[in-house]
Amino acid sequence: MMNRRDMFKAGLAAGAVGLAPGLASAQAIFAPVPKGWRSFVLTMQVEPTAGANKAWIPLPTFEAADWQRPGNVTWTGNARIAERVRDPKYGAEMLRVEWASDQQSPVIEVAARVQTQNRAVRIGLAQSVTPLSETERKLSLAATELLPTDGLVKETAEEIVRGKRDDTAKARALYDWVVENTFRNAKTLGCGVGDITTMIKTGNLNGKCADLNALFVGLARSVGLPARDVYGIRVAPSEFGFKALGAGSEVVSTAQHCRAEVWLAGSGWTPVDPADVRKVVLEEPPANLAMTDPKVVAARRALFGSWEGNWVAFNVAHDVKLPGSREPAIPFLMYPQAENKAGFLDSLDPDKFKYRVTARELTA
Question: What's the CA gap between 155 and 16, in Å, rounded?
């Protein structure tokens, strides 16, 4: 564990090594570019146990003209109520389900069609980008329960971006700092929770995607860069052969992944994913790779400005109060949720919960 100043200095030194020009010729191939839409059916079968009679299922209905097109959503089951609802603040869409109190074997199966494709932006170049609305800008700069934008978060971010004159340079500095100073912790449950103040205060900058990418988002917001977490799920293998960055089978019940975006003039919502760089470091065979490994260098270069279309987005919502729930708001909605009289079931344990998520690509 190190203090923030030591982490900052270490990040600068390691960054100089990680971006050494001499490595360019040895880099692996990881270069997502748009090359056509792919169609998937995401199916979620939920059979809650332990007397639960309420459930909330995230839907992949996030829309982005250049990389995701939501399609038809259908469902079957024995629920008393099943309705599509939206979070009023962020627009996150979910299926709210309620069964009769005496229903013996509650079940709901949801099938959602969605199209996605690789994305890559030309960062910082003057293009025709529709400006953010004032409402969206405020939302993308606001603090949340676990993402404060003052105190230690702001102090850390200001130190990282000191001397950077434009938003692109600031965003790049924050991205490089997160890549250099964090690590993926295989013991973190699910995708983590994103408690960035505790991470910075303790110096324990570890976790999984909802922690590491939330750290980027919180730091960015604290220095005036609109940014957001994008919660979704991997649905197919990586076309570039990165085993750590794709789904290993059609069963994707534990393939949830949080990405991030930062708003930059000239490129609009710009994809960033420092957490996946750290995933490559830890998990890409043969595992525990050095920052100078060609695979890590390739991922680091690609994941500031592009990402692969083998993943679909659910929403960008924080602090989600599930409609009809007696429980407090949850940090984000990326997993099916269910509730009994005692509270929420464990959404990170699909076999006990239980639910099954599958993804099938449509080729016809």
Answer: 23
Q: Could you say which architecture CATH assigns to the domain 4-34+117-314?
A: Roll (3.10)
Joined together, the tokens standing for residue 138 give: 């405020």
Q: Helix, strand, or coil here: 96?
A: strand
DSSP-derived secondary structure letter, 270: E
- Taking the domains of the chain in order of start, what are their residue ranges? 4-34+117-314, 38-116+318-362
C-alpha angle 92-151-267 in degrees, rounded to nearest 5: 50
**Digit-coded pLDDT (tens) for 58-108:** 999 999 999 999 999 999 999 999 999 999 999 999 999 999 999 999 999
Q: Quick one: CATH architecture of 38-116+318-362? A: Sandwich (2.60)
User: Which of 27-64 are b and which e, b meaning 16 or more Cβ less than 10 Å from the residue's Cβ?
Assistant: bbebebeeeeebebbbbbbbbbeeebbbbbbbbbbbee
